[in-house]
Amino acid sequence: MSFTKWFLFFIFPMLMGTVQAQENLTGYWQPQFAVNYQVAGSYFHNFSVANRNYIYDDEEFTLKGRQLDLAHFSKLKIQDNQSVALGVQYRFRNNFEDKENELRLTQQYNITNKPFAIRYGHRVRTEQRITNSMTIHRFRYRFAVDFPIIGEKLDPGEPYFIGAFENLLSVAKNNAPQYDTRLSGQVGWQLNDGIKFQMGVEYRIEDYSSGLPQNVLFLLTSAQLSL
Predict the structure, then answer these.
(1) pTM for the full model?
(2) Mapping DSSP to helix (H, G, I), strand (E, B) and coil, where does residue 56 land?
(3) Which parts of 5-158 are beta strand (E)?
(4) % of the chain at pLDDT higher than 90
(5) How far apart are CA 30 and CA 27, in angstroms?
């Protein structure tokens, strides 16, 4: 069990290192703040705000804003390890660039399994990305693992690791289908019973079936408050 945990913990940085050799690379820094709270019984709400900023663009390091996302999810636990959720998000792009703002609707099913210290998760999402010019339908599947880095149980103040692999398909009228892949690894700390802090990286290959796929690297930082 400990071998599997450390293998996963170290394999993600090794895979991320391969990004340095990629062309068509764009880099972002994306901080996020989220609040979770239980409404009643098995019903939960999540509110979040995220800001995406360029840090590497056109083969130059920079720091400039790209977008601001405001999101809400309503989640219902249907079993101890299964849930369904509905989400709505508004993306402000026009304030930063000459791009359209976006309204996004999300439907989600999530199931987890934790036979030992490692928890495995499967998530399926459908999304409708709505702008003035078009509506994009996106279908997503994500496999994720998380576990405490020290010991078999996560205690306050101790670090944990989250890794995820996700495939996406986007379709829209009069547009060719777009296939994307995402790989991420983050280290987090549970500071107390209600606060978590996470940081890590995510690598995306966007439109990889085209002649010129795009390589995107994210530096992720987030804080989560559970009420």
Answers:
(1) 0.88
(2) strand
(3) 25-40, 43-57, 60-79, 82-92, 102-113, 119-130, 135-148
(4) 71
(5) 10
